[in-house]
Amino acid sequence: MGGMPAPRPTTVPLLTAPTAAGKSALALELARESGLEIVSADAFTVYRGLDIGTAKPTPAEREAVPHHLLDVADVSENYDVARYVQEAEAAIAGVLERGRVPLVVGGTTFYLAALLRGLPLTPPADPGVRAAVEAELAQRGLDALLADIAATDPAEAARMERNPRRVVRATEVYRRTGQYPGSFGNRPPRFQYAVTAFTRPGPELEARMAARVGAMFAAGWAGEAAWLASQLDPETLPRPTVWQALGYREAWAVSTGQLGEAEATARVVLASRQYAKRQLTAMRSQLGAQVLTPQDAAKQVREHLSAAYKLSVN
Predict the structure, then answer these.
(1) What pLDDT score was predicted for residue 202?
(2) Taking the chain, what is the end-to-end CA distance rounded to the nearest angstrom?
(3) From the annotation, which residues make up the binding site for ATP?
(4) What 3-state class would DSSP assign to 134?
(5) Which residues are annotated as a binding site?
(6) Going by C-beta distance under 8 Å and a sequence separation of 6 or more, which residues neighbour residue 179?
(7) How many Å apart are CA 17 and CA 292, to the nearest integer?
(8) What class of enzyme is it (predicted)?
(9) Annotated binding site for substrate, which residues?
(10) 11-119+187-309: which CATH number, 3.60.20.10, 3.40.50.300, 3.30.70.1450, 1.50.10.10?
């Protein structure tokens, strides 16, 4: 027995924050000082070719710190939460098997909640019923389908976060089974997580959003959106998953001359504020997180790394 290795800690550190709050920068700082590997939890950095508008880590940052779950799908694929959980858990296991420590980082709370709770045991999709619901979405609109869900289960409607693909899926499952996806339970998660969430004061966060959107347009975001439109028609309903990425429709409108850059920036910042509000609500309700300041969040992660993994931190 004396020769057996000590069991690895089962609690994986997880860092989340609203868009533009600086979670990637803090994650890089923590990873560099403690030798961590980052496992991304972002629904859109998984796509190859979406670099500017998703604020994907730069090649230099990825050279300095190993990153997982970036550039794992083509934009024509519908990358979903089931695939994310499977690939994220495999990545986490691989990091631990190499004797390293993973840090899960991202703002897609739907993915993070699935990591924490385990994947839903929802029945597979029925293409025929789904097609009928998609046609209804195109005819009646998102708000009408959401109202249908809210009439029978307001909590389920809120959980949709106005995501058309989730609304279609929930409606399809309900019409087949009389239950929404959240009613089917979950398989046990493979790992346990120590969740750390943070944000910044509203005016500071909005200023960071505006600065980031401006920098994205300066870096060529409109051209990236035009490339995406050349791969997938943005007017298709329901829209391909990638067109749900924040700001790409506005950036595409700039590329076609339908919007000026200033107006597009204002619209994206407004959408970012609304998205950040939904993220914060989900962090508290779905992840059970206390939302800290950036400084307290850094301290909390460092203390966890020291206690759970005996990592020395600065």
Answers:
(1) 96
(2) 35
(3) 17-24
(4) helix
(5) 17-24
(6) 173
(7) 9
(8) transferase
(9) 19-24
(10) 3.40.50.300
